[in-house]
């Protein structure tokens, strides 16, 4: 069975076929670097990491480009608010973003194009669109894409053509779906832009957000490539506009497969600073939640389902990671003399994992296959049926699966010292709860510590602990 991906543009699953033999060219929309990325952003970046890792697991060579938007409405506004240059602002948050990627064990993209380095190519594409009649200049030196000139505008977002307002214009980089209007390819200079501007055939100004990705993707991956990813919030207007201007500028198909991840909610509510439920990765780390638990939580809900974030889910995520790590450790130390080499079980697990993940990255099915192997392996070791060679083969298999999951060897990302007094107090509370036969409370305390990377070990001499 071939890999099947749900293609946003067709609204159905399609068999995955690459353009260039075994090489996958993939463009993933990166952050706008004017602030720390929040966990909703990282839900999308984690989905893209899972996608790439699985394609590699299946033997594809992947070339990934992820853009860094370092000039747009938001970056200019924030730099002026802080009284620093655009470069100072964006360099700060580029560095923060790369540090966060490392913390979450997200594989670095092969290419990180920055918008400000491609302005000449953006001017060239805008000029091309104007020369072909797809764009027009206004009195303020801006250039707009004329959506009426492109007969397929709206096909990605499935917009009703009758609801589009051709001839009316929108200057903002991001705007609502209702009433699609001509959008800015090039923005004529305004006083609020400060010293952020470039010379162009239309006077000084700057590129619009949408043209940036069209230029960077086609310059680095070619005019027609395999996969374009982002969050569902990118479908319109960003990706719709990107598709329209790219096809019109190059005369080629642009992208074969559009994949989009759903929103992240916090306790079933949209994340918002006003609701006090807005988290960056750094917020969670400062609260003591390990990076591997955050990673696990973000990848283990199917990318096309809304992900509901909660502290309880982080605790469950840490337990799952610990289970995998403990299983590998147990296999490493195994010295039994059984005869089962585990080859049949390994084959079954690989087949079940691949079948599940081939189905549009069905991660729950993939994890079910992995944990079935864990259950069988633990039972086989406990009963002395597994051979030492079989244990070694299972380790290789688990680590192969972990190329997709990326959690076994992660650092916790916690840089604070463990508060030993706090842990000992929690252990005392757990002991008291268990003495009162309140085992549920005892389990809650264990899970709370596990979410902080603390493993409890019950021994005849009392409960010991170690940091994960």
Overview of this protein structure:
Helix content is 45%, strand content 16%. The protein has 468 residues and is of the alpha/beta class.
Summarize the structure.
The protein has helices spanning 39-57, 73-82, 86-103, 119-131, 209-221, 235-250, 281-286, 291-299, 311-333, 343-358, 363-382, 388-405, 420-435, 439-451, and strands at residues 4-7, 12-15, 23-28, 61-66, 135-137, 143-145, 165-170, 181-188, 205-207, 225-231, 255-261, 264-266, 269-270, 307-309, 454-459, 462-467. With 468 residues, the chain is α/β, with parallel strands linked by helices.
CATH class of the largest domain: Alpha Beta
Number of domains: 3
Number of helices: 14
Number of strands: 16
CATH topology of the largest domain: the name is: Rossmann fold
Give the helices and strands as they follow along the chain. Answer: EEEHEHHHEEEEEHEHEEEHHEHHHHHHEE
CATH architecture of the largest domain: 3-Layer(aba) Sandwich
CATH superfamily of the largest domain: HUPs
Question: Roughly how many Å apart are the termini?
Answer: 39 Å
The radius of gyration over CA amounts to 26 Å
Low-confidence stretches: none
Rounded mean pLDDT is: 93
Helix content: 40-55%
């Amino acid at each position: 069975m071939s890999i099947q991906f749900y293609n946003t543009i067709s609204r159905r699953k399609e068999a995955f076929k690459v353009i260039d033999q075994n090489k996958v060219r993939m463009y993933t929309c990166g952050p706008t670097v004017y602030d720390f990325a929040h966990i909703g952003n990282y839900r999308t970046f984690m989905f893209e990491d899972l996608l790439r890792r699985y394609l590699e697991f299946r033997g594809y060579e992947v070339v990934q480009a992820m853009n860094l938007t370092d000039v747009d409405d938001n970056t200019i506004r924030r730099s002026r608010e802080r009284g620093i240059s655009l470069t100072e602002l964006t360099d700060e948050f580029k560095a923060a973003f790369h540090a966060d990627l490392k913390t979450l064990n997200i594989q670095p993209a092969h290419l990180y194009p920055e918008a400000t380095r491609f302005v000449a190519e953006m001017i060239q594409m805008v000029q091309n669109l104007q020369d072909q009649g797809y764009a027009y200049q206004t009195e303020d030196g801006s250039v707009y894409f004329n959506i009426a000139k492109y007969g397929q505008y709206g096909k990605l977002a499935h917009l009703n053509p009758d609801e589009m307002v051709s001839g009316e214009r929108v200057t903002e980089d991001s705007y609502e779906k209702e009433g699609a209007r001509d959008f800015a390819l090039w923005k004529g200079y305004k006083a609020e832009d400060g010293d952020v501007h470039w010379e162009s055939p239309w006077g000084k100004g700057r590129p619009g957000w949408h043209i940036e990705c069209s230029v960077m993707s086609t310059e680095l991956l070619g005019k027609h490539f395999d996969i374009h990813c982002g969050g569902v919030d990118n479908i319109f207007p960003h990706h719709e506009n990107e598709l329209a201007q790219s096809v019109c500028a190059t005369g080629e198909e642009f992208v074969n497969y559009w994949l989009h991840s759903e929103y992240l909610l916090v306790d079933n509510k949209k994340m918002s600073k006003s609701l006090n439920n807005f988290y960056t990765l750094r917020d969670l780390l400062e609260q003591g939640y390990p990076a591997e638990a955050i990673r696990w939580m973000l990848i283990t809900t199917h990318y096309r389902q809304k992900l509901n974030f909660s502290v309880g889910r982080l605790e469950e995520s840490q337990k799952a990671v610990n289970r995998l790590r403990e299983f590998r450790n147990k296999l490493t130390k195994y010295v039994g003399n059984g005869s089962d080499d585990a080859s049949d079980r390994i084959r079954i697990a690989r087949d079940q994992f691949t079948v599940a993940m081939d189905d549009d990255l069905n991660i729950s099915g993939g994890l079910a296959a992995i944990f079935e192997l864990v259950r069988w392996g633990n039972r086989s070791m406990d009963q002395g049926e597994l051979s030492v060679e079989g244990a070694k083969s299972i380790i290789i298999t688990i680590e192969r699966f972990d190329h997709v999951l990326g959690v076994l060897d992660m650092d916790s990302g916690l840089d604070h010292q463990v508060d030993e007094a706090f842990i000992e107090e929690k252990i005392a509370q757990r002991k008291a709860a268990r003495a009162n036969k309140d085992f549920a409370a005892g389990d809650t305390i264990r899970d709370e510590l596990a979410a902080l990377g603390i493993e409890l070990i019950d021994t005849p001499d009392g409960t010991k602990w170690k940091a994960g």
